[in-house]
Design brief:
5-stranded mixed β-sheet, 4-stranded mixed β-sheet, about 35% helix
Length: about 325
Amino acid sequence: MFASSLPSQWLAEASLQRPDHPFLSGSENLTFQQAQKRVETLAAWMQVTGLRKGDRILITLPNRVETVLLALAALRQGIIFSILSSQIQPAGLRRIVAQCEPMVVFIDASLSQLNEACEGHLVVDVDDKDWCTVWNPTHFKTPPVEIEPEDLAFLVFTSGSTGTPRGVMLSHANVAFVCPAIQARLRYQSTDRIGIFLPLAFDYSLYQVFYACLSGASLYLGQPEKVGPELPKILAREAITILPGVPTVFSALIKMQRYRPTSMPALRMVTNTGDYLPRTHIDELRTLLPQSQVFPMFGLTECKRVSILQPEEYESHPESVGRPLDGTTVF
């Protein structure tokens, strides 16, 4: 683990330690080294396009490899990114564009209806045959920029459940503190395969990318619409070992395992955030998936994770969301 470095360096360091180890799979498969080369090429494209440290971009894409690579390239160059749901409506995107003032908005061919909301800004269709040349094997490289810990890394736009969505600012120091602290509790391993079935616009999914770089684990980019009858089959087929989720994901999984149980021997850990995971859900998950440990957690977008309940503490503190992370004080 690279606890002393900043997140802009984590992929590069992982690619040196584990060049041929699987990193991303879903729309395509990439090792850590292949992903690093693609990120370097993308960073060079950003430089040529005129994007500089401190500029902002919006990535409005579904869960696909390009979404992750664009975010990592921006992080490397000190460009402030925000990933938005591909389900966002034009009016919502228009509000966020006005708040964020991005230099570039990335979309794909299925989201052309969002073009009007981005009027006055450069819109890049990542499926466009001309722009797609940036993904070819030719390796362009530009030096990474110097990043200070307090530099802004990315914006996470809240769901707007209590008002208009707002952009929460996360610095490189925020991420550099919390990710190793979470990893110290969850202990992801290089043999793990993390299944992402929540949108990458949700910071909980985005942070899985960082944990994978720190631990050497691989990421399977699933689609949120698969959270239903197909989910257990996908988890079994893809040998997913870690499933980050929210209560609705686990409600669906419990329902399917009750109705038509699927053997998932590889699944060793499920982690919950986003909302309170009822005790009944935890008990059912422990019964239906006896090989899996359940980690209830509590967090805030502004500081990512506050506390994690260790499985061995559940019996004595069944209603708890756990102990604060190391270095975190709770009042």
